[in-house]
Amino acid sequence: MCDVSLFSVCAQGGTPAAKMEVKTSLLDNMIGVGDMVLLEPLSEDSFLENLRKRFDHNEIYTYIGSVVISMNPYRSLPIYTPEKVEEYRNRNFYELSPHIYALADEAYRSLRDQDKDQCILITGESGAGKTEASKLVMSYVAAVCGKGQEVNKVKEQLLQSNPVLEAFGNAKTVRNDNSSRFGKYMDIEFDFKGDPLGGVISNYLLEKSRVVKQPRGERNFHIFYQLLSGASDDTLKKLKLHRDFSKYNYLSLDSAVVNGLDDATNFRTVRNAMQIVGFMEDEVQSVLELVAAVLKLGNIEFKPESRCNGTDESRIKDKNDLKEMCELLGIEQSVLERAFSYRTVEAKLEKVSTTLNVAQAYYARDALAKNLYSRLFSWLVTRINESIKAQTKTRHKVMGVLDIYGFEIFEDNSFEQFIINYCNEKLQQIFIELTLREEQEEYIREGIEWTNIEYFNNAIICDLIENHQNGILAMLDEECLRPGTVTDETFLDKLNTVCAEHQHFESRLSKNSKFLTDHSLPHNCFRIQHYAGKVLYRAEGFVDKNNDLLYRDLSQAMYKANHSLIKQLFPEGNPAKVNLKRPPTAGFQFKASVGTLMKNLQTKNPNYIRCIKPNDKKASHIFTESLVRHQVRYLGLMENVRVRRAGYAFRQAYEPCLERYKMLCKRTWPHWRGPAREGVEVLMADLQVPAEEFSYGRSKIFIRNPRTLFFLEERRRQCLQDLATLIQKIYRGWKCRSQFLLLKKSQIVVAAWYRRYAQQKKYQKIKSATTVVQSYTRGWQARKLLRELKYQKRCEEAVTTISAYWHGTQARRELRRLKEEARRKHAVAVIWAYWQGLKVRREYRKFFRANAGKKIYDFTIQRIMQKYFLGLKSTMPSMSPIDKNWPNRPYQFLDGVHKELRRIFHLWRCKKYRSQFTEEKKAVYQEKLEASKIFKDKKALYPSSVSQPFKGDYLEISKNPKYQKLNSAVVEKVLLADVVNKINRANGKGTARIFLLTKKSVVLADQKTGQVKASVPLPDVASVSVSTQSDGFFALRLKEGSASATKGDFLLSSEHLIEIITKLHSIGATAADTKQLNIDISDEFLVQFKQDKVCVKFIQGAPKNGNSVSCKRKNNRLLEVSVPTTV
């Protein structure tokens, strides 16, 4: 540890040691004294001053050996973070500064590693922070134990049980805004790995009197205010409640609202916690109904009424609250009303019914309210135990956490304070016994001689209270069970008679003469000298509170309720199980439960947390010395310190002791190679510590006096300073040398880089000069070569030019010669031709003189015709019927022949073209021809359809598996299958439909499902109406009176309008039994929709949706179709 502390000094210089983990000890950087056992000198004043000093520096935890003293800071401190949890995890108890996490970790590791059951006892008065301490312990254990889905669920249920119990068991008091008004002991069960399996909760003495009455400045239990503030309006309506606190007698109004407590938010937290713990929704509702019933019960008021026999009885003033309460619990109103007015007493076989006066009725009402709430709280604890109990039946390790009320001394102390202080006496007794036993076992284990320690044994006080024959509780039970008149005065008289000689009992009427002159004792009080001081108890109410009597009539009335939970809470009300035996008293039950708790605690290894409240103002940074002194006394903290210091004040294992103090001896510094005990012996001998000041155990060294420890700490502090100085000197020398070497290395690197830079610059200059010289030389050479090449090129070009000119001259000369020769030859030919003609004419003139002209004409015509036909043969056009080319006529006199030949050739060409057609193709062209007859020059859409072939089945309905069902539904052959839009007359919008045309009918089917929507026989179609424009709209006009005309005509739109109308017309023309279909082409026509006729009007314009046709409903009698203007 010393080495690490020294490294922390070096860490200030920024060296790598700063990254090392810095371990601290209980003795390092102490504010005051972290362990009261080491306090020197030891007195009550020095004890309080040490607590004050640590409290002022936010050190709220202090040790007394293994006991943790916790001061309530009344504010949040940053000492419970996840980093703190990791810091204290798996660390020695004294290794770090005092903290509640250290105790929780020590207990958890002892349970997990040593298989020792643990218990953590948290004590202190109200407002000292016991509940928060128990939460911190549980949260730490939950954080350090294992992980996993099931484990996390168990941890969450254990942690979420706290908000539920706090809501029903905590209340605002003058000392604490969240005071636990019950004692809680939770056993958390773990498996062999240390993972939580479940838990069991035990509750002790709920302050149920708070339900019906609260002291001034205090509140009832939290749940009442949370329910009224946080529940929804619907929930309050079901529970028949109002948000106004003033409407309920059981709720105090002066402290209904508490600063820092958000009842509405806390109610939602409680509901969520109940869900996590495992409450069903109907169970939560039942619990809220019982809480509402308690509030309603407090509003029931009684009025006196005299009977004819002179006896007084009571009657309920306003029965509205009684009625609502009975409706909530499912009780007959008359049954509960009678239970509040009469009391039945059974003795053997006799029953006596007596009336209740107003005071007795109010007592019965409050007793029922207290019992109802108390039993509900016990049921909640049982229900939580069912959810959080361990599921496996193997042996479990157990850690118990006891959060119980501390010693209470008020101005007016009654039965509750007596019971609470009795419990604290038992806890103090077991604390002293277990502490001494732990000390003795450690001494024996270490081989140290044990000497008996004198201490105050409070067994005599416990015996005064719990003795079976002469104890105060026994005499109180005896008085409650005694026949005759029993009052608090008779009980006090009995105490004065039996306990008069007891040295810890005082009373004004005691027979002990030394108290006769003590006038500070009232007549109806007695005083007990507890270990924490004298407490004055008022005997008034002891008998009634001990009896805790609930009339049997009320129990039976509750059992008759239809509410499932009420029957479980009042099993004694079952008429079939009437028990005339008197129920056990409250004192007897509490004594038995305390005895069970003590036996349970004695089987476990104890760990103590003593909680102290620094002031009564619930404010931070205020330390009230008188209040703290009072708590230190009644918690017995000084007694605890004296017990721990009676033998050896400090003990430590050899390894950490040697590690901490080895620098004090040259033989052990810096490393000891032998066993740790021998190193400690060498160390103590070298320091010349007197032998009587310490003893060697088997694994620890025991130091008797704190002065010896402080001597070692002072020597260690001085040595640390010397070592720190040495380390700083070495570190500074090393740092300076390192800096010098770094500078030297840097200078070498800088010089090397500079020389490199200088040489690079010099090289760049030389390289640049060389490049310039080279560039000039290369330029001169290039220019010289260029001049030579240019000269050579000019020479070659000159030769080429001269040659070209010469060859041109030669060519032109030859051309002129050839032209001249050709002219001469042509002239010779012409002259020869003229000469031959003259010669022939002279020779044959004698033969053709009479009809020579006609013959020459005929010959000429014959030659012309021959030449015409031979020319026509070579210029004949193609065989395509649409080819309109034809050779020009050469002579005008051939015009008629030329036209006739053209007509004959076209007819012959068409015949040859038709001979190539199949029957199907002929039918298509026949339909095209028919379409031309119907629409040519009548419908603007027709020209664009001429080039489109008529396919007929556009959907391939026979091949497509999607339309298999539709194909099977149509018997005839489908001539045309297409998708059309059926126009809705209501809004002009289209719906996609499948349009099928057969030889006998028109079928419309749904496009998605293929279901047939309409089937119209062709004889029922009277006509078809279309517009003259380029749209695809057409109307199927049905014959009036036909079966198909019940729903009216069909207005459809299709991209293949020309083909659909043509096929409909052709089918009507060929069928023998069908009249030819009438085609009406007009921009305005009537369509019959059911009983109404609607005009469909087509106009040209710019539609909204681009270039598409749009249909819009104008009124009930007009549909307007807007068609884009064609350019």
UniProtKB/TrEMBL annotation:
Top-level taxon of origin: Eukaryota
Source organism (scientific name): Scortum barcoo (barcoo grunter)
Protein name: Uncharacterized protein
